[in-house]
Design goal:
The complex is a heterodimer of chains A (250) and B (228). Helices cover 39% and strands 25% of the residues of chain A. Chain A has helices at 45-52, 77-83, 99-109, 115-128, 144-156, 174-189, 201-207, 225-230, 235-249, and strands at residues 5-16, 19-30, 34-38, 60-65, 68-69, 84-87, 162-166, 194-197, 210-215, 218-223. Chain A is an alpha/beta fold. In chain A, a hairpin with a 2-residue loop joins strand 4 and strand 5 (68-69). By secondary structure, chain B is mostly helical. Chain B has a single domain (3-227), classed as Orthogonal Bundle (MetI-like fold). Chain B contains eight helices and no strands. In chain B, helix 2 packs across helix 4 (87-113) and helix 4 crosses helix 6. The longest helix of chain B has 44 residues, at 3-46. Chain B is flat, with a radius of gyration of 21 Å. The chains are: A alpha/beta (250), B mainly alpha (228). The complex binds adenosine-5'-diphosphate and magnesium ion. The site of magnesium ion has 4 residues of chain A, from helix 1.
């Protein structure tokens, strides 16, 4: 893994009315790294990801991609958003388009690619996630796991520098979860830089370079999976994991 | 004169002439009514500030004005401010305004019904708001607006008869002229009614075909009733 910093998040603050959701979050992401974010719901994990690509503009703080400022970038934000892929809990595939067209659309309209080239690239991305046989199917004809894989292909098609995953498997049952996590593991192995909000501790421990535990709008603890498992100082993170494990054990 | 001679030599030729005018009125109004309806709905929903207010006010004013009054204003009132329309043009302008305002309401309802995630996902890929509306939200919303839009089109077929009130001899007017000249009201108006019914039937069938063709596979709308 190379050591250069691809994404820098600096002191992000965000409130919705009186609700102070993010209270100063900072971290650096090295190229090829996978960071996993865990924490109770409502602590601002989704808001943090949306602040990174400015879908929710932060009140304070800055985001840098490859040394260029993403915050306050005006119309250039549309360039940065291509380079910062995003995968959502509920997939958000374009319902009126086939899997192939879902992946093609931004290539044609945003990147201005020609039809033949866009199609070839889109098919290639679908192949990456094992969905090329489903290219002509519509979202309503796909299982959740298949839909999520198509949405990953859609993000990959823009050749992003980093992909943000917001609980990509939380809407899926265990078997479908596994097929999506397999794809994500493969991407991590191929050197994709990823920020992943998830409750899948198995995935976190085997893939993450670092796990960040968020609570009350700040990163309360952070460390490698190894530290997390063996170092007694990570009490709050352990407590939280204990709680989600016992919930899963029910 | 016997009824057959009246029907074939007088009534039907007159109605045919009127029908051609009616079809011309519809053909000149409907495409613009749809285009402006889309523009007004998008402007109201996404335009923000002044644009949104303008679109809203336009719809409010048109909804609040009887169409007949609107036609009177356009035909009899506008010459006073230096704008003179032929009766046909005044009718078409009135129909476009009316059709656009109601279409806009159906389309806006459909725009609101498209989940936010569609717009968010499009913007997350680097699309501008306009690109997201154009390529993601509108294509879905227009499909959902088809039942409302077709209803409005059927109204247009029928309210095109108001053009007669500002001297355009369209289908209803042609029927009225024949009826009063020959004192055969029942026969004439029954024939006119049948022609409108045929127009509405054709529209209904065409809309059903259109809905099936643009239905999105896998959704309930894309499934035929027999499969449900
Ligand atoms: N658009 C919004 N408007 C108002 N409040 C919001 C909005 N988005 C998120 N919130 C609030 O911010 C808090 C954090 O939400 P979120 O970032 O979704 O947390 P998490 O992803 O960690 O569960 C919640 O209290 C939520 O209600
Ligand atoms: Mg969340």
């Amino acid at each position: 893994m190379n050591n250069d910093i691809v994404l820098r998040v600096e002191d992000i603050h965000k409130s919705f009315g009186d609700n102070e959701v993010l209270r100063g979050v900072s971290f650096d992401v090295r190229r090829g790294e996978t960071k996993v974010f865990i924490g109770p719901s409502g602590t601002g994990k989704s808001t943090l990801l949306r602040c990174i690509n400015q879908l929710t503009p932060p009140d304070r703080g800055r985001v840098w991609l490859d040394g260029e400022e993403v915050t306050n970038s005006g119309a250039r934000i549309n360039y940065f958003r291509q380079k910062i892929g995003m995968v959502f809990q509920n997939f958000f595939l374009f319902d009126h388009l086939t899997a192939l067209k879902n992946v093609e659309l931004a290539l044609l309209k945003v990147r201005g690619m020609g039809k033949a080239e866009a199609r070839e690239k889109a098919l290639n991305e679908l192949r990456q996630v094992g969905m090329e046989d489903w290219a002509d199917h519509y979202p309503a004809e796909l299982s959740g796991g298949q839909a999520q894989r198509v949405s990953i292909a859609r993000a990959l098609a823009m050749d992003p520098d980093v992909i943000l995953f917001d609980e990509p498997t939380s809407a899926l049952d265990p078997e479908l979860t596994r097929e999506v996590l397999e794809v994500m593991k493969k991407l991590a192995g191929e050197g994709m830089t990823m920020l992943v909000v998830t409750h899948e501790m198995g995935f976190a421990c085997s893939v993450a370079n670092e796990v960040l535990f968020m609570e009350n709008g700040v990163v309360a603890e952070q460390g490698t999976p190894d530290q997390l498992l063996h170092d007694p100082q990570y009490t709050r993170m352990k407590d939280f994991i204990g709680r989600i494990d016992s919930r899963l054990g029910d | 004169m016997d009824l057959a001679a009246f029907t074939f030599d007088i009534l039907l030729p007159a109605l045919m002439q009127g029908l051609i005018i009616t079809l011309q009125l519809i053909a000149c109004s409907a495409p613009f009514g749809l285009a402006f309806g889309i523009a007004i709905a998008v402007g109201r929903q996404y335009g923000g500030g002044a644009i949104s207010w303008l679109c809203k006010t336009f719809v409010f004013l048109i909804k609040g004005t009887p169409l007949l009054l609107l036609l009177f204003i356009l035909y009899f009132g506008f010459p006073a401010i230096g704008i003179t329309f032929t009766a046909f043009t005044a009718s078409v302008v009135g129909f476009i305004l009316c059709n656009a305002a109601y279409n806009a309401e159906y389309i806006r309802g459909a725009l609101i019904s498209i989940k936010d995630g569609q717009m968010i996902a499009a913007q997350a890929l680097g699309m501008t708001r306009w690109q997201a509306i154009r390529h993601v939200v509108l294509p879905q919303a227009l499909r959902r607006a088809i039942p409302g839009l077709s209803n409005e089109f059927i109204y247009l077929i029928k309210y095109s008869s108001l053009a007669y009130m500002i001297t355009v001899i369209e289908l209803s007017g042609a029927g009225k002229l024949v009826a009063t000249k020959y004192f055969l009201y029942t026969e004439s108006f029954a024939a006119v009614g049948i022609v409108y019914l045929v127009l509405v039937t054709i529209t209904t069938v065409a809309v059903n075909i259109l809905e099936k063709r643009v239905a999105i596979p896998g959704t309930t709308r894309g499934t035929t009733a027999a499969q449900l």
